[in-house]
């Protein structure tokens, strides 16, 4: 349990077949690889969608590098009978299979869960889809954008007088990928006790529902119709100050959850005289006078820099944060010092920043980042070394368009 | 592996002490409870922050019900030496402790990880914080709003001509809570093999970084400065159509990822004559003529309802989705049919909808939702039945303000 021990990675020895595409499946497999699992990324002959975009260069290369570090990569054509046999051979030697194809695709290919459990009853088969493997919306096509629409995210993002808006990051892809990781590891834990594998399933749209807790609370209440989109204010318009305020070099977020935050903020602002002002005397009063409260705060922030406000926040224990742009985030001294972000030399992108796993296991050194494998880079290593095929057999598979 | 078996829940027999507050820690413990773990929610004598808000009624009650179903609840004053002893007694009989206090709080109380590992070397100690247990920003106060600012979410959410904006749901709280669950179960898996417990750690700000993959890609590219906030358009302005379009009764999200989507969309719109129009001939052309592309799509959507567009999307295999409001989401026939959403009778809220776990374990029935426990509801059951205290000892603890 001590940080100075050097224990093995927690998932050491776990073998994963990663059929994941884009973000959702590959992120679950990334978390496994970074916890020490042996992850084989299996792609169609032309590569998974992000690989194809990688070939175009520009902005699409970095995601491939971010999510596929510490995995080996092979190609496999599942539209051939021989390809399906090879997948079964891999699955028979593996603990986990991850796929985020649309419902029914694996069955149509002849490598559905039922078939793979016959090959390996100890398998953890992990399916991630947009809407799930059952239900009336099962077959709706799903991407991060459409799930943000259907799940409710868009309806609560944006300003009251503006249209519904998506969250900028691909939150639906990633929160569902994270749930998928949790489901897989839960089934692996169970298998240690029971010896049995299991099918686990995650639907993107369902992983969003809990995140709407505050917003749903307003629907449930008898306080009348829920507030419209609230911009940067509290989703229930029930806390003040709670907003993003302009300052000299950008914006800062400030929130006062308890009265001590407000009284400390008054001190930081040099506005102690407002302490007994009835408009601001408690949270309920400030909510009633929300525009005036925000104006008082903005009067202070607008003449300061983000750094000055952040320093005042430390001194007075205020929950604030600068609104950072992505260049600042990518170069965060904090995340680099913690090893969450690492500089690596990438075969095509040069010197880039890649993330480590946000899952931190004290007592084991973090795994170092590395370039993602090239398309099919480990074909000989896996098909030869793991499945025992000869060089000439592998050559024939390549000539036949199987790998 | 068959769905018609009825296997036990995968985490059956796992005992969890849940000191979690608000969303992050309680959500990780919720996922454990819904996978069959025995979760004891431990609260200060006046309740955790969401419990306090629950007492105020209105919108704050539902989150308490959503995240604390299937847990037992006790009170415990960790600011008393006897309270700390009781926590240690509980930990000695448990597998997991979850806490999302600020860094250092548990140590100051005298029940930090080191102390608890002395009590139980097999413990999985799970810490979730805003910025992590190390690094220069460790002690910055963190809530969902401030982490959305510091992590980069706000900088990429909103319109190009508008200010930075938060995502409406509490995505930072929940995505970090989901990661926390993954870290805990990983350590439980490992413990089955090694017999050793572990400290695991998750920092909110770090769990956001991977979600920015598309957006970070633009920073990394040599295509010039990254695009500003892009509203509902693609974060890298590299795909078109990719937007939210007004229709007769709201909005719909439409995305064309591959050329077949576009040609099918043209058919659905009855605009086959545009198939060979050089402005729309491929994605690159449509990106160059993004405003015109969006105008063509909007010309079609504006005269239709969301339902009509959704039906056309099924017929033509288009990735679209209606922008749903929260009343629609809460009543989703799809999620109710799948058991993700359940109606329950709540002791104070009456008939409400609560979520099940988004983690689905095929072969085991979903756990039914139930009212969250009242503050201290299981004090006698736990302190008596589990720790073996007598009724009079429990009475004395209550009189002394320990429980």
UniProtKB/TrEMBL annotation, chains A, B:
<dbReference type="GO" id="GO:0008410">
    <property type="term" value="F:CoA-transferase activity"/>
</dbReference>
<dbReference type="InterPro" id="IPR050483">
    <property type="entry name" value="CoA-transferase_III_domain"/>
</dbReference>
<dbReference type="Pfam" id="PF02515">
    <property type="entry name" value="CoA_transf_3"/>
</dbReference>
<keyword id="KW-0808">Transferase</keyword>
<dbReference type="InterPro" id="IPR044855">
    <property type="entry name" value="CoA-Trfase_III_dom3_sf"/>
</dbReference>
<dbReference type="InterPro" id="IPR023606">
    <property type="entry name" value="CoA-Trfase_III_dom_1_sf"/>
</dbReference>
<dbReference type="InterPro" id="IPR003673">
    <property type="entry name" value="CoA-Trfase_fam_III"/>
</dbReference>
<protein>
    <submittedName>
        <fullName>CoA transferase</fullName>
    </submittedName>
</protein>
